[in-house]
Amino acid sequence: MTVTELADAVVEGDRRALARAITLMESTRGDHRRQAEALLDQLLPHAGNSVRLGVTGTPGVGKSTFINRFGSLLLNLGHTLAVLAVDPSSQSTGGSILGDKTRMADLAGDDRVYVRPSPSGGVTGGIAVATRDAITVCEAAGFDTIVVETVGVGQSETAVASITDVFLLLVAPGGGDDLQGIKRGVMELADVVAVNKSDGDLIDLAQRTAADYRSALHLVRPKHPDAPTPVVTCSSLTEDGLPELWATVEDLHHRLASSGRLTDLRSRQARAQLEAEISLLLTRWAADHPEFARAKAEVLDDVAKQRLSVSSAARRLLATIVKF
Prior knowledge:
- The protein is α/β, with parallel strands linked by helices.
- Helix content is about 50%, strand content about 10%.
- The chain contains 15 helices and 7 strands.
- Strands 3-2-4-1-5-6-7 form a 7-stranded parallel sheet, with helices on both faces.
- Strand 6, helix 11 and strand 7 form a beta-alpha-beta unit.
- Helix 2 packs antiparallel against helix 7 and helix 14 runs antiparallel to helix 15.
């Protein structure tokens, strides 16, 4: 199948073509990268018309179960859904180990949904290098809502916010230590905060937790100057609050789109991604450069024995391939 044939099949909604295209995006082989770039160029005119929702949260908050129930709600509302679940990677194989599909059984069996577990490959921020390209592929295939589930909360979760329109921080009922465990930077990135597991005996605690987060958000710079960051409660068990949460996401996305801020946001993201891609390509090229590899081996010992500073070593290495 040629790149053009693969692009046509993706746009037509062929599931095997969709999986093949994303696998191509994840490959680091030189010939595959060139094919992936050509494929993306052909798919771009068909992409860009989805709600891109990032979902993050502390371990144990129930992200996958939440997405399973939240996704079912979206299907009932007539949407189509692609879930890109970024897993921690096995250090020996680089494979996905969480098995999100087993926790999203309702979605995985629906023809209107595409669930793609993707190994993070150890990438900072817990987000796969090819996730941003996978979003483009899924949009070209006709999915109107793209959910990117991240590994967890940390200061490097900036990565997921840099490729999505709305960033949802999912938290569990609690307070004090739980609130302290959320990095200030993540709070500043959040477009919406949702207190999950608001059911049974936890309802009152969830309400108090929501109030705590509303107070805490007054201490950080607001994400959007025209409105405070909304904090809602919901339950993946009873589905209470899920329609209201989606209404909140939709309203925010609509305000971004109608004001022109969504276009500006995606333009800034594209520029930042270009800078990151240039850095990645330069790093890969340098690693494959024979003279660079020999020079690196020579300076490593000097750095380790503190005969040469890291800065001087880096400058010397760069001088082997460019005039610095």
